[in-house]
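Late entry, nickel (II) ion complex.
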Amino acid sequence: MLLHVPQVLTPQQLQSIRKVLHDAGESVWLDGRATAGAQAVQVKANQQLEPGSVLATGLGEQISQALQAHPMFVSAALPHRMVAPLFNRYKGGGTYGNHIDGAFQRDGRVGGAGRIRSDVSTTVFLSEPGEYEGGELIVEDSYGSHEVKLQAGDAIVYPSTSLHRVEPVTGGARMAAVLWTQSLVRDDARRAMLFELDMSILTLRQQLGDTPQLVSLTGHYHNLLRMWAEL
Ligand code: NI
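Prediction complete; structure with ligand written out below:
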């Protein structure tokens, strides 16, 4: 399931994160190949903040908290454990060719998640679409190729099993935060069913109130979750 999660960051949060990044200057942006695996390193040409740095950790905390407080993200990703976000920047032809994210991701922070299985990939856009040329995130699935370029502060959520790439940025600069979630429910198809069920229950409850049928459907949602969740 490829899902657009709108307004993860409020305009104030976005503005504050962008100001911190702007004020940090150029020297904080390092070669992104440092965190790429053997296949990905061949196709990765971007810049990123040093993972675990005070800067990345402070900003990452704000993004993680905003995602965990967003009902649509929580319902879709069913997060069990999340790694600290990485911050990247593409400019001057910067690109990240086709790859699938590594099965395991590490959170090096003291008290952090440690090593997790990556089930769900999330990109939070920090630059407005008008600020750069190119830079579309392309995600491939069995329904074809999907092009994603969102408003700053919005996020895209997709299964970590997907082949994806970032097209070359030929003008301006594209900043984003990316992170991985180990879901309570490993299988994307099951997560998608639970998400649709949850959203339908929510809408029906608003329309009808808590009818006995809705109490039953809600119970089935939890019983499916109980059946499929891994802790
Ligand atoms: Ni990736």
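The longest strand covers residues 169-183. Will revisit in the morning.
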